Amino acid sequence: MLPYIDVLDRAIPMYGLLGVIGFFAALGLILAMSRPLGIDRENAVYLFVFTVIGCMVGAKLLYLLTVLPDLLADLPDMVNDFGLLVRKYLSGGFVFYGGLIGGVSVAFWYCRFFHWRLSDYLPVLMPAVPLMHAFGRLGCFCAGCCYGVEVPWGVTFADAVAGPNGVPLFPVQLVEAVCEFAICAILVRMSVSGASRREPWMLVVAYILMYAPVRFVLEFFRGDAVRGVWFGLSTSQWLSLAACVAVGGLLLLRMRRREA
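The structure corresponding to this sequence follows.
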């Protein structure tokens, strides 16, 4: 709806701007929550920054995997035109679950390198994840990417740079953003409670059990084709199912151990 905003006679992409706003909003939340929860603010900030870098790399790599056939087909042309790689594959396109995997991997590595316990920082890191993601989805809406299916009562884009114009579309980006803000609020509430301090990993479990079903359902309302589809489900839907099964299995195992 608003792909660019003019600042000092320069066109600033709203997608990138909202991504930056989301980063600083998440950083502000971490700073605000760290001291009341007794968490080292400086360590939390460094861990968050490196985790975000891992998110960006992981999100891009999984996106490239979903478009691998096109990428391989374009390789001969990229030899003579490197800009094609940048324009078509590197300038846009991210898959959230790839970012989640990349971010978690970097966070584990970072904490292990400094001999920290990642669980000590989860009460501030986990609420920051859906908050930053929510702003990212608002950016998607402004750019017109990750758009929804055509519906009579949908939102019609006039200046979308990454989606169809003049067609009423289901505002799936806005719906997901609202869900992300709600998940963030719930995780903040859990973080300040005594239960999450005793079992901080339950924040991860709660996040997955809230976000994965939302993402699975909303994928049915997505209208963009470049998402990778196998056996009728998108890449994100398969990963949502896998995440729920894995978390459900861990919870079941935990319950059985308690009963033993």
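Strands lie at 4-7, 10-13, 150-156, 168-169, 229-230, 233-234.
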